[in-house]
Design goal:
Elements: H1 6-27, E1 35-36, E2 42-43, H2 45-61, E3 66-69, E4 73-75, E5 80-88, H3 90-94, E6 101-108, E7 111-119, E8 124-129, E9 132-135, E10 138-139, E11 152-155, H4 163-173, E12 178-181, H5 186-192, E13 198-201, H6 206-209, H7 212-218, E14 222-225, E15 239-242, H8 245-255
Parallel strand pairs: 3-5, 11-12, 11-13
Antiparallel strand pairs: 1-2, 3-4, 5-6, 6-7, 7-8, 8-9, 9-10, 13-15, 14-15
Length: 257
């Protein structure tokens, strides 16, 4: 980058997360009405308000940057891109469950370089970038687990899997020490802080995963698609996040037979 460092980007991303936290808290457990989008996923006025506020702040600071958001799509083009999910876990949000987050990513050349997982209702935040990962300002580190039979395995919901993908995930997760469901982006924060070891999901969009990659990698973990390829805007939505490279290799082998 020529105009600022990734540290400055991470600082600004934290400012954006503050905005998301304030707005999400103002709406949480008061906003329950929602509409259905074309893909049948729910959207609330809170989703739209948060994304609009984040877009306005980014364009005021970086008018030449592109933005991809879940609600308003892509605006602008170029090498420098912000990727936004104003409320990741809208179903949790509208049912009063505090495990929803705001995801903020900065990508250069399609590669996610800075990511924020903001959990407004919990007052928790992970930030990942070139200098590693932090949780509420303190260093975050993945567990170091290398063996599948010792791994704590998460996914959001069986509903997101095709029958074939579910068969693969089911076989993999039953080999772990513990398997749990639910959490959306929160699972990846838990992995970055060493509380779980493996997250496997499908049907994600770039705004669902781009912010997660720098957090997981910054904490010492690995996050790719099911084939072990780096994640980017053209990925197919199937992701694996692991606490260690060794566990990641085991998980990929299991998923691919």
């Amino acid at each position: 980058m020529t105009d600022l460092s990734l540290d400055h980007v991470a600082d600004f991303a934290g400012t954006l997360a503050d905005v998301a936290r304030t707005l999400a808290r103002a709406h949480f457990r008061t906003t329950t009405a929602f509409e259905r989008k074309a893909d049948e996923s729910p959207v609330t006025v809170a989703d739209k308000a948060i994304e609009a506020a984040l877009r306005a702040a980014i364009l005021a600071r970086f008018p030449g940057h592109a933005i991809l958001g879940e609600e308003a799509g892509m605006t602008g083009d170029g090498h420098l891109l912000w990727v936004l999910d104003p409320i990741d876990g809208t179903k949790s949000f509208i049912t009063g469950m505090p495990l929803f987050g705001a995801l903020i990513a900065f990508a250069r050349g399609g590669v996610p370089r800075v990511g924020v997982i903001e959990m407004p209702a919990l007052g928790e935040r992970w930030v990942g970038g070139a200098g590693g990962a932090t949780f509420n300002g303190q260093p975050a580190r993945a567990s170091g687990c290398t063996a599948l039979d010792q791994a704590r395995v998460y996914t959001s919901s069986p509903d997101f899997f095709t029958p074939d993908d579910w068969a693969r995930y089911d076989a993999l997760s039953r080999r772990g020490a513990i398997r749990r469901f639910g959490g959306d982006c929160y699972q990846y924060g838990l992995l970055a802080s060493g509380h779980c070891d493996l997250v496997v999901e499908t049907a994600l969009q770039p705004y669902d995963f781009m912010a997660l990659v720098p957090v997981v990698a910054g904490a010492g973990g690995v996050m790719t698609d099911w084939q072990g390829r780096p994640l980017g805007l053209a990925s197919d939505g199937r992701v694996v996040a692991s606490a260690t490279p060794a566990l990641h290799e085991v998980a990929l082998r299991a998923l691919n037979g």
